[in-house]
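Dear colleagues,

I hope this message finds you well. In preparation for our joint manuscript, I am sending the pyridoxal kinase (Candidatus Lachnoclostridium stercoravium) sequence together with its predicted structure, so that both groups work from identical material. I would be grateful if you could confirm receipt.
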Amino acid sequence: MSDINHNHQKKIAAINDYSGFGRCSMAVELPVISQMRIQCCPLPTSIFSNHTGFPHFFFDDYTDKMESYIAQWKLLGLRFSGILTGFLGSERQISIVQDFIRDFRDENTLVVVDPVMGDNGRPYSTYNDQLCRAMGRLTSYADILIPNVTEACILTDTPYKASGWTRAELFTMAEKLCQSGAGHIVISGVDMGQYIGNVVYEQGRSPCILRTKRVGHTRSGTGDIFAAVIAADCVNGADLKSAVTKAGLFIKKCIAATEKMDIPFTDGVCFEEVLHELH
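The corresponding structure tokens are as follows:
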């Protein structure tokens, strides 16, 4: 182990895939977390030339390299104020991430799990029932769990619906997610007509729904930005409701800037235009 102390600054280990184009996953998490004055340490799970929403892409699975990569961090004696997990493409990757959390977590580490499994009522094509169950086991490691509505339904065996959720239904689903072991739940992206709702459920506190006025269209990468802002803000000491509000308002600004520039939906949001406003 290194005799040099590399831990004078707050760090978040961000475990996700990396896309060179399309502004999602690690490509948005790294600058967002850095802007919030925390060192972002990427642990890639796979490398894409551009994300899978495009008709063609290059892909390199990083699973076989992850453990050797992690071993070097152990030799350096790295400690993390936060661990943020995103898309994981196999049971083996989920197992590696569970080991990572067990090895690096201490009493000062905040673990944020974004269980990237699906959207619009359907799991992604790479996710079968077995992989969904494995992701369910990973959620037990989370201090903060941030599923979208589809993922919350998958994790709780709740029938999906695109809209028309009642507060009671959403709070019941959040309570079920809490039973996995995560004390703080955020169900993101609830369709509430002219608003987007985010359910905040914390053990010992009254649940609530924080609403943001809807602007523009749904775009890739917004969920990754949302999770990154929440992780960094909470590592910096913010309470969860404040962090969710900040994340929602920042994404609103990102989408508004993107609409003005007539950016294709596949290309993500122009967060660069408003990143300086994030603190």
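For the figure legend, we might mention the following. Helices lie at 26-35, 63-76, 91-104, 129-138, 149-156, 167-178, 222-235, 240-260. The chain has eight helices and eleven strands.

With kind regards,
E.M.
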